[in-house]
Write a structure and sequence with these properties.
Blueprint: H1 4-13, H2 15-42, H3 51-74, H4 88-94, H5 101-105, H6 112-140, H7 147-210, H8 214-233
């Protein structure tokens, strides 16, 4: 019987599929770390108080990249190049979601609207990250090899999502509400499409590595399309709502260090 737990267990048990999974995850997290570091360096003077939180966000993402690489090293594996069709972060940027890398590579300060766009983009993508890590934590929190990493990364992603909610509500109170809702909706509708395409690409690569039969691959692809259909009709709305989080000032302190994986 196919389930999220059995599927990931299959990927975890095979060195080559685990290698690809960790390589994709590490690349995306490291890219997020770079993006947040650049945004923190370019915040406009009026938003200077937000810079430490953005820096913390970037440090967490960079830490996650190191954790996935450490999991590979623990099994004596080296990262592999990430297939372009599975590169979620770069595909989002290529489709205009978030801040363009050309802008981040310049030395010109960002605008307040840029910061609002960054937070809206993060609110959508952190929703996805939080849900994915919550699923892994549900099934693998006590796993001897990856449990500690899953618990740490899941907690961080929950903090990131709480931070996005709180800061976007603050900007909404300052008169940016209409722009925030418009940006959230655009980001969410684009993200669910890109997530579908990336999921199909990842499953295609995993299927070749693990030797899945055509019927099994077809069932998994149908499931991905079904999730997209639900998200396109109604599920995207969970990505655009805003509520004050129970965990306030979630990124108000220093980033925690990555654990050792001996």
């Amino acid at each position: 019987m196919l389930s999220a737990k059995s599927l990931f267990q299959e990927i975890l048990d095979n060195d080559e599929s685990f290698r690809l999974f960790c390589s994709i995850a590490a690349s995306g997290e490291s890219q997020g770390g770079w993006e947040n570091a650049r945004i923190a360096a370019l915040v406009p003077p009026s938003e200077h108080a937000l810079a430490p939180k953005i820096t913390r966000h970037g440090a967490d993402e960079d830490k996650h990249g190191r954790i996935f690489n450490a999991l590979l090293k623990k099994r004596g594996l080296e990262p592999v190049p990430v297939p372009p069709e599975t590169d979620y972060t770069m595909l989002l940027e290529r489709h205009g979601i978030g801040l363009a890398h050309d802008k981040l590579k310049s030395d010109r300060p960002l605008t307040v609207q840029d910061i609002v766009t960054y937070l809206a983009h993060s609110r959508v993508t952190e929703q996805r990250a939080s849900e994915q890590m919550d699923l892994l934590r549900k099934h693998f929190a006590d796993h001897p090899d990856i449990g500690r990493a899953v618990r740490m990364i899941s907690g961080d992603e929950d903090n990131h999502l709480a931070y996005c909610h709180e800061e976007l509500l603050r900007y909404a109170a300052q008169g940016h509400g209409r722009a925030i809702q418009r940006t959230l909706r655009e980001c969410a509708l684009a993200e669910i499409r890109i997530y579908r395409d990336v999921s199909l690409a990842v499953m295609d690569h995993m299927g070749r590595i693990l030797g899945w039969s055509r019927p099994k691959a077809a069932v998994l692809a149908a499931g991905i399309h079904a999730v997209y259909a639900w998200e396109r009709i109604a599920g995207w709305r969970r990505m655009v709502s805003l509520r004050m989080p129970e965990r306030r000032d979630a990124l108000g302190g220093p980033a925690t260090s990555a654990p050792e994986f001996a």
